[in-house]
Amino acid sequence: MGTDQVSLLSAQSILDMDATSIANAIKSGELSSYEVVNIYIEHLKRVNPAVNAVVEERYAEAIREAQEKDNQKEHVNKGPLFGVPISVKEAFNVVNMKTTGGLLNRKHLIAREDADVVAKLKEAGAIILGKSNIPALCFCQETDNKLYGRTNNPWDVARTAGGSSGGEGALLGAGGAAAGIGSDIGGSIRFPSHFNGVVGFKPGKFQVSSNGHFPADTIPLQKRMSGMGPMGKSVRDMELIYDIIANNPFTEQSLSDFEIDILSFDMNIPLSQKTKETLSGIEQYLSRLFLVNRSTPPYFENSAQLWQEIMSLDGGKSMEKLAFSTDRSNVLAAYAKEKLTRKTKVHPYLSWALIGAKLFKPSAGRIKEIEGIIEQGDEEVAAFLNNRLLILPVYHTGAPEHGKVFQEIFSIRKTFLHYMPYIAYANVWGLPSLTIPAGTDENDMPIGIQIISANGNEDAIFQLGKIVERKSGGYNRCSGLD
What we know:
Blueprint: H1 3-16, H2 19-28, H3 33-51, E1 54-57, H4 59-70, E2 85-89, H5 116-123, E3 127-132, E4 152-153, E5 156-160, H6 166-173, E6 179-184, H7 190-196, E7 199-202, H8 220-223, E8 227-232, H9 235-245, E9 259-263, H10 273-286, E10 292-295, H11 303-311, H12 317-323, H13 331-341, H14 348-359, H15 364-384, E11 388-393, H16 404-409, H17 416-419, H18 421-428, E12 433-440, E13 446-452, H19 458-472
Parallel strand pairs: 2-3, 2-6, 9-10, 9-11
Antiparallel strand pairs: 1-3, 4-5, 6-8, 7-8, 7-12, 11-13, 12-13
């Protein structure tokens, strides 16, 4: 076996490693940060033309930072991600990098300071390779915009990578970083994790700072739905990175204190046969270890409607102002022009979503009603999940072809009521949710499942996640683009 072949095998094994393994290998001297960072950069150069996940790179800076870390003295305190290469969703400010929101009118805007989560990751020793693609203003569950174009799923480039953290999902699915960071107000960590076969964790409400995320959450009911969280290759990495970025440390727990429920299939909402089989397999496996029940949590059937109304509270006015800040045309005119000419500055996914926000904007009376439902529901949901872990699907299928998810969620016929309940529940009630690859569909595309519980039960979520991960095999890097 020649030297080049040995080197190639070594590089592939490093691309398969999670952030925890890489950090341990660097600290022990088994690997250098320079070696690891260089392998990931070269890999990204190979795979990114096919998936279009990295929209801004800092490869030269990353190599320099890796060399500096390798030259640090032994006695220097080395953080838990020391020398580990990561990626960052475009929505987060990274000093001296652009934060565009996928908008042409922001293409020259450079961040002057790091987002809070980015600063914490850097302090932990992480090295940022680049920023990953998003839909315009993160306002879609598919990733495409006028500035950077469309991101493709590495398992099948004709299929969606999801959104809005779709660049992170595609990049990590192809093994383009050891871990990454995303955000989620409507499945934006969980859709890409599910579609690309990666692990993702959406923290509960107010658990991680959103300072330095664009667009900012300015409406209280929306802010409670949003979570900034890690994506990557293992549950233990999600636990590690969440511990780094969370406002407060989480409490150690025992799984023996928890009931485990799997969402009942007895509801009139779509779910593929392959997904049902995957969940039933997990149920059968866990039943050997725990008492496992089937149930439907309180307010589950209301959550998709509540999510849509909360997302439409201001009729999309704040988003429209950002999207059309240098354009006098209104959103209706822009959408019509785009359909006719394809020459506007705003992607039709965004303009149509903003039209939908106008159509679905709740009345003042309905807003008061929603506030009352949320206040009462918070108590009931917290009581139900106090000592319970809930396993449920992420979406009704694996990744479909580009455009299908947008059609299903943003149809004027309100089909989101059928397709969003699995996702909306954790957002509306501000709950932590862990997504884990658990199988494949009839097209050999990844299928993920969610584990949800109350805020404060993160440790139990991670423990159960590791058991499911062992059963399913967890993350499997897509090597088809190598």
